[in-house]
Amino acid sequence: MISPARADDVAVQIEAARAAYGKGDPLHALAALQAATLQLNQNLVGQFGKLLPVAPRGWVSSAPELQALDGAGGGLEVTEAYSKGEATLNVSLIIDNPAVASSMAMVQEASRQSLRPGWSKVKLGTDDAVLRFDPQTRAGEVVMVIGDRALLQIEGNEITKDDVLLEAARGWNLGALRKLIGIGS
Known about the structure:
- The chain is α+β, with helices and mostly antiparallel strands.
- The protein contains five helices and eight strands.
């Protein structure tokens, strides 16, 4: 949840925008709305960033970043990158975007045993996910969908085994994610 102080900051900025707009000052209204949006984005990065997997042992992680997906159907994406030498993992959490539905279809294919070549079904806790790993290219990914709102994806490059993908994927805080996006437990 957003801390009361930060929620108040957002509310204050929105009210300032409303007042400025009411006085015929659209530039100040826009500036106040942009400040509210910036604060909301910071709040969301903090909340969703806590749900991302911890970097595997020996890996270095970057700070989580949030991107609005307005130009890609809406929603938001929180990402974090991990590295170890030449190996990289890119973790993505996409919320309320059409990519969730298309990935849901792929995960559901796994339940019907009709996956695309190169993909396999895996269990992460009680949830279904799909995994692709190519030892020749040393690349792979694991994909999971929670409800109809969240796409969780980890892409790996220059990795030697799929174990690192699965280890990272087991680190998602799925219970807290479900609670945050309003999908049962």
